[in-house]
Design brief:
single chain, about 270 residues, 1 helix, disordered N terminus
């Protein structure tokens, strides 16, 4: 990705680092009756995610990205704001799931004249795939206390990546990929299985390759379409914060103006 004529990369230990995020998954616990109920709940959430993924690949939207470079005391050293036409291309050939993001710049980026490198973050909008069955053996899930948000009861589910399994997220460094050992919490509607928010981080698990910390929070909102029987929860806002021993970045992605597209027809959903 290029911005203002310059290509920006994350630097860790003087080596170029690309953050690549693909998806995430679930592992249902087994044993007691309560565990069986939890299995059923996870299965319902997994089915909802699979359906949402199909629908998500049928829409496009507007993505506004704010990239910040922060000083050690949290002061903004540099900022760029960009707008894109955004869509996700989903394929499932031979049982291999693939997600590719497409971004087309709309207008010019708003930036200062500084030359400080900024972080490029891709793929975090699809973090709801933490429950996709394709990655069902990559995470351990646990039941957390329920929570009331916006007057609605939501179930909270904790997740933790299992080392040595197929990773849905990776750090690409000098020709090698290092799995991001994500752990965090998902907020899920108990009736529909719709994921409303996910928060994840890597703790201190990757300091040996120069990644001190990575934290992301993704919020989802219902997007109704007149020809569909139900609303689908699509990404509304994603924030990503990354720290290395010497650098600190924070990116925010906001998604609006969802439109379904097919051959010769489009339907637009008003901005949230």
């Amino acid at each position: 990705m290029k911005t203002d004529g310059q290509e920006f990369r994350v630097q860790c230990r003087r080596r170029t680092v690309h953050l690549v995020v693909f998806a995430c998954a679930c592992l249902a616990s087994r044993g007691s009756r309560a565990a069986e109920n939890f299995d059923d709940f996870l299965s319902r959430a997994s089915a909802r995610v699979s359906d949402s993924l199909e629908r998500f690949s049928e829409v496009k939207c507007t993505e506004k990205v704010q990239q910040l470079k922060l000083s050690p005391n949290g002061k903004v050293e540099r900022e760029i704001e960009s707008t894109y036409d955004y869509l996700v291309i989903f394929t499932n050939a031979g049982g291999e799931l693939s997600l590719d993001e497409s971004r087309l710049r709309v207008g010019d980026a708003k930036s200062d004249t500084k030359n400080t490198p900024l972080l490029v973050t891709n793929g975090f909008a699809t973090l709801f795939l933490v429950f996709h069955p394709y990655y069902a053996a990559s995470f351990q899930f646990t039941v957390l206390d329920d929570e009331i948000a916006g007057g609605h009861l939501l179930k909270k589910v904790g997740f933790r990546y299992l080392r040595g399994t197929r990773s849905p997220a990776a750090l690409a460094l000098r020709g090698r990929e290092y799995p991001l050992q994500l752990s965090g919490t998902a907020w899920i509607d108990p009736e529909t299985g719709a994921i409303t928010k996910i928060v994840a981080d890597i703790g201190d698990s990757m300091q040996d390759v120069g990644l001190k910390g990575l934290r992301t929070e993704v919020e989802y909102a219902p997007m109704p379409f007149h020809d569909l029987k139900q609303s689908y929860w699509f990404p509304a806002r994603a924030s990503v914060e990354v720290e290395t021993p010497r650098q600190h970045w924070r990116n925010t992605h906001v998604f609006t103006n969802y439109q379904r597209f097919s051959v010769g027809t489009e339907e637009k959903v008003a901005s949230k």
